[in-house]
Amino acid sequence: MIRLGLCCLFREEPITFRSTTARYLTGFPRPERLARLSALCLHNARSLGQALGYAAAHGIGAFRALSQFFPLYTHPELGYGLDELPAASAIRVELAQIARFRAAHGLRLSFHPDQFIVLSSPKPEVAANAGRELAYQTLVAELVGAEVINVHAGGAYGNKQEALARFAKHFRELPEGVRSRLTVENDDRTFTVRDLLPLCAETGIPLVYDVHHHRCLPDGLSEGEATRLAAATWERTGREPYFHLSSPRHGWGSGRPRPHADYIDPADFPACWRGLDATVDVEAKAKELAVRRLKRDLSL
DNA sequence: GCATGTCAAGTTGTG
DNA sequence: CACAACTTGACATGC
To answer: Which tens digits make up the pLDDT trace of A21-30?
Structure first.
């Protein structure tokens, strides 16, 4: 059975996630910085709990958390540890409640680090920074019971094979908690499903199949083949595959199909996904409204 | 109060 | 060579 997932934010429901900027925070002495960050982290923890409550109430089976859940956690100057925050214990209580609620309702939780997380980089400091960021998201993932941290393969630097070899090398150097959660997604500029399958075979990393990216950057595989091959990379883990779906804001014939539309056109839902056991993250700007509309349109 | 410009990080591709 | 696109706001600032 297909379960639909909501990504990061709400359009109408009053559930918000707060952040701040490094530039602004730099102006305060460290104790006040930590106090401000603490308030944001506690707010975000409570909002994540509300988000899961909303999902459970509306038959939404998965939620993707914001990367900036703990704002600036890994920043080189402004970074901090959870237990340095004045509200650390209240935050831990919230996260533990979320973990229980998530498990009780069978909801899936995932993280999707930003574009700065590049495990294929030839620059040691970039790969090291990626490791720090992944360690942070893993810390939160462990506290709330999230099972997936999904990344793109990054840049090719003129040679995809070498870039993927560096990705695999850096992957093997990551802690077990990160490795067991990490997944890799085909993107719309560089790495296709066909490119990533050898990496997945070699490392055991599950492949998240984004059909919109596949349509923007085809690789000779049909959607049915890509679906089957991507799903096969999940079998070893015993977990349900993750797919991503969006519709083009300006239409397929517009010359710029990449930007996401407010809602999903049901015609963009691949016929070969019907009846599968899979989680489909809905990447649509109308957020919870789009998930609920698609659920209705597909009679899920 | 409300509108607007800015925001840590990387890479690619366009103008 | 500079800069927008990725995602997508939310925030601080300035009027």
So the answer is: 888 888 888 8
